[in-house]
Design brief:
Layout (H helix, E strand, L loop, with lengths): L1 H22 L4 H22 L3 H27 L6
C-alpha cells in the first residue's frame, strides 16, 4: 500500500513539472521586451491620432499608468525569484 502511495505521489509531481514547463516556455525578459515593442509604438500612434488636447492628456496618463504597473510587475518578479535547491 505504501509503495502505491509513493508511486502516486511521484506521478503527481512529474505531472506538475510537465505542466509548469508548458506554462513557462517563454522567458520573463522576452515577455517584457515583446510587450514593450507592441506597447510603446501603439501609444505614440494614439497620441498622434488624437486631436483633442484632453484626449492627449488621457493617453499620456494611461501610458504612464500602464508603465508604472509594468515597472512594479518587473520589480515584483525580480524580487520573488523561486529558490531552487
Amino acid at each position: 500500500m505504501e509503495k502505491l502511495r509513493n508511486e502516486f505521489i511521484e506521478d503527481k509531481v512529474s505531472i506538475e513539472n510537465v505542466e509548469q514547463k508548458k506554462k513557462d516556455n517563454l522567458p520573463f525578459g522576452l515577455r517584457i521586451i515583446f510587450s514593450l515593442i507592441i506597447f510603446i509604438p501603439m501609444m505614440f500612434l494614439l497620441y498622434d491620432y488624437a486631436e483633442n488636447p484632453e484626449i492627449k492628456k488621457m493617453i499620456i496618463g494611461l501610458s504612464g499608468f500602464l508603465g508604472i504597473i509594468t515597472f512594479l510587475y518587473v520589480v515584483y518578479k525580480f524580487l520573488n525569484k523561486p529558490k531552487y535547491k
